[in-house]
């Protein structure tokens, strides 16, 4: 049976605790699950500590954030089976601090223009993640009827980037794509470019594939366009890349909620990920 290899929990900006997701995966007929929280070592450690739950095999994973400075876009790279190592822990701590400081500044500014909003309530939502996300801010506003949902017009007015910069937007510094790929290599993880359509990453995808820097690409994702799916399928076949899929589950912290297992990775591709990981872990750390 297949696996949902792209999900988020309260370890980052999702609304559902990690312990609940294996049950949801089992109900959807999944045999494998990757809790792949943003820039998080907590999701990696959770899977290593709980290799099987509800009969579902957990794959250690995290979704690392990078920045394509040449094109001015964020980039998400899924990392499967990384070592629980100092390099990954340091990166996670660095991004946690940067994200916390950026969103905390947004919170302080929001308190000045919205008396109903209190930073302490956003921090309560953030207790499992160890840092603040914009989703935590929006949950507070939404529950009091101060927002039209999680990521609609109120969100854009506060945190939008284009065409008009949001009034309280503060963005953490992101590391380069090369830095993040080097980190995945140091952790002996498997690197898969996440949802290339979301951040207009197809030019980067072509570049990284040509350079042999990716192990795989995520194709079965709700926000990939048909055109990008077609090209990614061709590139994956031509370059013998792993093909993955996942729901990008965030629970209720989404405009268009989708259940775990709505998008998935085939058995053969999961086996390829595990084979690459085993091979790399059979060798000394670089």
Secondary structure topology:
Elements: E1 3-7, H1 21-27, E2 32-35, H2 42-49, E3 52-53, E4 56-58, E5 61-68, E6 73-80, H3 86-113, H4 119-125, H5 134-143, H6 153-159, H7 177-186, E7 190-193, H8 202-210, E8 216-220, H9 226-239, E9 242-245, H10 267-281
Parallel strand pairs: 1-2, 2-4, 7-8, 8-9
Antiparallel strand pairs: 3-4, 5-6, 6-7
What's the short version?
Helices cover 40% and strands 15% of the residues.
Low-confidence stretches: none
Q: Roughly what fraction of the amino acids lie in strands? A: 15-25%
Q: Distance N terminus to C terminus?
A: 34 Å
Write down the secondary-structure element order. Answer: EHEHEEEEHHHHHEHEHEH
> Strands across the major sheet, in which order?
5-6-7-8-9
What's the shape?
Answer: globular
Q: Give the averaged pLDDT, no decimals.
A: 97
Helix content: 40-55%
Radius of gyration: 18 Å
The number of E-state strands comes to 9
Count the DSSP helices: 10
- The SS-based structural class is alpha/beta
Largest beta sheet, briefly?
Answer: 5 strands, mixed
Oligomer: single chain
Structure write-up:
By secondary structure, the protein is of the alpha/beta class. The protein has a domain at 101-159. Helices cover 40% and strands 15% of the residues. The strands form two sheets. A five-stranded mixed β-sheet has the order 5-6-7-8-9. It has a four-stranded mixed β-sheet with strand order 1-2-4-3. The model has no long low-confidence stretch (mean pLDDT 97).
